[in-house]
Every structure is written in structure tokens, then in C-alpha cells.
Amino acid sequence: MTFPRASGVLLHPTSLPGPHGCGDFGPAAFHFVDWLVAAKQKLWQILPLGGIGPGNSPYMSSSAFAGNLLLIDLAELAQRGWLTDTELLPDERFRETRVDFSAVVPWRMARLEQAAARFAQTAVQPPSPASAAGRAEQAAQASQANQTNLADQVNQTNQTNQTNQANQANQANQADFAAFCDQQADWLGDYALFMALAEHHDWRDWCDWPAPLARRDPQALRKARQEHAQRIAFWKFSQWCFFRQWTKLRAYANERGIKIVGDAPIFIAYQSAEVWARQELFELDDAGRATVVAGVPPDFFSATGQRWGNPLYRWSAHAAEGYAWWIARMRRTTQLVDIVRIDHFRGFAAYWEIPASEPNAIRGRWLPGPGAALFEAIEAALGALPVIAEDLGVITPDVTALREEFGLPGMRILQFAFGEGAADDNLNTYLPHNFDHNTVVYTGTHDNNTTLGWWADAPPAMRREVLDYLGSSDGSDMHWQLIRAACASVADTAIHPLQDVLGLGGEHRMNLPGKDQSYWEWRFTWVQVAPEHAQRLARFARLYRRE
Predict the structure, then answer these.
(1) Contacts of range 178-185, beta carbons closer than 8 Å, 24 or more positions apart
(2) Residue 473: helix, strand or coil by DSSP?
(3) Sheet (strand 410-413) strand order
(4) Residue 447 known to be catalytic
(5) CA 436, CA 447: separation in Å to the nearest integer?
């Protein structure tokens, strides 16, 4: 599927400004949409919307379907009467430029629990005849009192109206929540039960729970739903808040011509509701433990490869059910975002299998993925989908053939285009003069250094090569030169990390693959954003026909 010529900005919502420790779906998110409009951008790319996992990574979520509760705008919950202003006073450990997850997670979760408890208390019952009669008597008394005190009657009427309005709002909220639970029943029930049980068992891996629960004995599950009903309701309430707010934000963006580019990791976390609920779809032993895990062999980022640790799919089981699980996942994802970036697309052609006992990714082997059969099943069920294939890493002809068979645009990273004489190599697909139209070009992604950080670390020979290719004298504004090169290229889509738009150094990078500490924390402040940033992006959008 090809996309119209456009450009956009990569920024995960946790990186937005805001008073509550990390970015969320509050006013700053809507302001960022307005800023994109002013900059003549058409796309807002984000990272996975699921909850964070080990190392605070959004690529290791506890569910492939649920949302990240840290993104819920708590001020909106206060507006609905479920939190107080005092409860929203920021923690003194919160920082404007970093997300301190150790402080943010417990603080935000405590507020969600308070909000859920108050929401549960607002379930409104229809008035009984006795209460109606009581109100009639009160009205008669008020009428009599009107002869001497009209002000009291007005006050009482106002209080009654306010109470009726509150009851109507509560009834509407309860009805909307019930409808959400019904509409999302195919995943929400398992997710909420999984989270309640994981919490009850001190977040131990689900295979270490009592065997009847780990193996999903029906009687044990029924008992658990009864015993943990209150916590199950909390997790459902929190998901309702997330999706209600996200739907509003996405609609705001779409109405202003901004499309959301989402992210779907190919693999999911072991400690997730879906692995627990559908154990037969993953390579697990009889005890429910992963026998092999996902990763990539040694590459540009790591000499020992990357051992991600996700369980691998049992593709034969997926094929036997017509890839129904994947169809459901893609259906849900495309309901949330406008375009889907599938992370590690090459894993559908062939994936790197690592024995679970191995400490790194060196000792592994390539095995064939589902190939065209998976995408044929998805297209048959959902039609042609707006998908970007993340085809980075060790790309073999079969990966390219699979992507091209379904007309999916691939990715090109300008930071990968230079070094070791690459500029003279016509086989270097990262150089702009070798691009196809059906391509998404980035200066760098969330896994790369910022462009200024990359430029600062570049060896002298590579610097000369970059300057020669770009026709630059000194590279003093290298971030803008790469952004211009991306916008000027024939690639239909150009995406720029906000760090590059703002000209930030390597200390502002979002992630370093293979490292599980001190990443995913970056935030910006509006003080860092000058009028020239939007003006220059808008100029490039006009100049290179990406408006």
C-alpha cells in the first residue's frame, strides 16, 4: 500500500510535557497536534501504546491489546469528580526532562485506584417511589417557605438541579463503561484477570502461580474471578479511561489532517495476558516456560546480538486456526491508529531462534516464518492494511520479496547511509539516490542516537563523506541537513524524531538497543521549542511538496 507524499514527527506521548511525571493524553498532547499543524506536518508517529515492561520498554507490554495506564490524563479524571486537586499535586521527585519511572508508576497507579473507587461509588440506582414522594413533600414545604424566604427555594432548586445533572452524568459514565466492557470482551476479561492475579502473586511469572491458575483450569478461573472481582473492575476501569481519552485525542488529530502512525511489535512479552491465555500458540514446554526466545544475531548495535527474551510463536498452531489471533490483533491495532509500523518485519520471513538457556543471542539459528500465508489471511479478513514494514537489520532477498509482494513500504535510516565507502556503493539502499517512492525515510529512529549525537561521534573520514554527499561546508546544522535530505528525497514519507527537529545532543536519545537501564525516559519542554522549528519544517513541507 502506498501513502501520499507527506512528512511527520516521531514522538512518544510519554515524552510530552506535563505536571504528573510523564507525558500523557492531557492538554500538552492536543497542543502538540496544533504544533504539527502549524509545521505543515501530516503524521505523528508514536511507539507502542501498550504498558511498559522490563527496563520500562513499551515493546514488552503485559498485553498486546491493552493500553499504557501511565498515559491517562489524571486531570480529566478530576474534572469528572473522581480525583481532588490536592491528589493531583505533583510529587517532588518528578522531573521535566526525564521520566523517573520509580516515582511515576506508583504515584499514578495510586491515583487511578482512587479514581476507580470513586467511580464505583457513583453507580446510580433509579429513585424509589418513597424517595419521589419525599421530594414532593419537600417541594410543598419549599413552596410554603417561599412566602417568607425565596432565596432558600432558589438554593434548594439549584442543589436539586445539580444533583440531577450529576446523576445523569454518572448514569452516562456507567453505561459507557458497560458498553466498553462488552465491546472489548474478547480480550479485556483475560487481561483484567491476568493483571489481578499477577498483582496478587507479587508479579511473579505466571508459570510460577499455582498450577490450576497457570494452566487455566476453568474451576480455578471462576473462583479467581469471584475472589478478585474488585481488582478486575479496577483494571477494566483503567482501560476504559485510556481508550476513551485516546479516542478523543486521535479524533482531534484526524480532524486537523494529522494521521497517527502506530507501532506493533512482532513479538509480545512472556509475562502477558495473551501468552497466558493462549499458551498453545507459543513455543512453551509442559510447565509453561519458554523453550526458545526471540532476538537478533550480532549486528551494528551489539557484538553479542540482542536477546529480547520474548517467547516465539508456534506458527503451525497459528496456521491451524487461520491466523485468527493475528487477525484480531491487527483489527484492534488499526482501530486505534491510522498507519501501523510492524516492528522487526524480517521475522515474518525468517526469525532468529535462541535457546532460552543462552545468556545472549550469539548461539541461535534462522528458522522460516509464516511468510505470505499470514498476510494473505489478514488481507482476506481485513482488506489491504496501511502498514509500514520495519525492514532493518540483516535483510535477505526473501524479506524484500515478502514486503514487495504486499506493496508495503520499507524503512531507510539516513544515519546508516554513510561510512566505509558506502557513498560509492549503489547497493546501499540507505542513500537517498537509491530510494524507491514506496519508502519511509528517517534521520534516525527511537533506537538511534540523535543526529547531533551521531555526528559528534562520527570519525573524520565519515564526516568528510557526509559533507561531500550533502554539499555542506562544515555540518554546523547537521540535523537540519539530514531533515532536508529526507524531505527532498523521492520517499513518499519522511519522519523526523523531535530530538532532531530541536537539535538535541546524544544525551537526549530515547533508547539504546541491548541496554535495559536509563532509557525510554526522555522528555522535552515547550521552552525548548522555538517558532523557527515549526517554520522551518513548514518551509520544507512546502518546498518538497509534503504539505
Answers:
(1) 180/239, 180/240, 180/243, 180/244, 181/236, 181/240, 184/65, 184/239, 184/243
(2) coil
(3) 387-389, 339-343, 259-265, 43-45, 6-10, 493-497, 439-442, 410-413
(4) yes
(5) 23
472 in Cβ contact with 463 (< 8 Å): no
Strand locations in 339-461, DSSP E? 339-343, 350-355, 365-368, 387-389, 410-413, 439-442
Crossing angle for the helix pair 185-200 and 324-336, to the nearest 10 degrees: 90
Q: How far is CA 235 from CA 208, 210, 405, in A?
A: 22, 22, 41
Concerning whether 137 is annotated as a catalytic residue, the answer is no
Q: Could you tell me which of 491, 468, 353, 471 has the C-alpha nearest to residue 421? A: 468
- Our answer to whether residue 390 is catalytic in this structure is yes
Instruction: Encode pLDDT of 31-45 as tens digits.
Output: 999 999 999 999 999
Of 263, 274, 343, 492, which one is the catalytic site residue?
A: 343
For residue 390, what are the contacts with CB-CB under 8 A and spacing of at least 6?
Answer: 341, 342, 343, 344, 345, 411
At 234, list the grid cell.
Answer: 479496577
C-alpha cell recorded at residue 245: 481519552
Which residues fall within 8 angstroms of residue 211, CB to CB, at 6 or more apart?
none
SS3 of 431, please? coil
Read off the C-alpha cell for 133. Answer: 414522594
Q: Distance (Å, rounded) from C-alpha 193 to C-alpha 542?
A: 51
Beta bridge pairs of residue 441: 412, 494
Q: What is the mean pLDDT of residues 105-131?
A: 81
Q: Which of 390, 391, 465, 492 is catalytic?
A: 390
- Count other C-beta atoms under 10 Å from residue 80's C-beta: 15
- Report the C-alpha dihedral over residues 453, 454, 459, 463, rounded to 10 degrees: -110
Q: What residues have CB less than 8 Å from 492, skipping those under 6 apart?
A: 2, 3, 4, 5, 6, 409, 437, 438, 439, 440
- Residue whose grid cell is 417561599: 146
Residue 317 pLDDT greater than 80, yes or no: yes
- Per the document, the length of the chain is 547
The one catalytic residue among 321, 447, 477, 547 = 447
* Mean pLDDT value across the chain: 92
Q: Report the alpha-carbon distance of residue 393 to residue 437 in Å, rounded.
A: 21
Element (H, E) at 78: helix 74-79
Q: How far apart are CA 167 and CA 145, in angstroms?
A: 27
Tens-place pLDDT, residues 331-388: 999 999 999 999 999 999 999 999 999 999 999 999 999 999 999 999 999 999 999 9
Residues 6+ away with beta carbon under 8 Å from 433 = none
Lowest mean pLDDT among 6-10, 135-139, 348-352, 399-403: 135-139
Sequence-separated (6 or more) residues with CB below 8 Å from residue 218: none
Cα distance between residue 85 and residue 48, in whole Å = 30
CA distance 411 to 297: 20
Structure letter (DSSP) for residue 390: -
pTM for this structure? 0.92
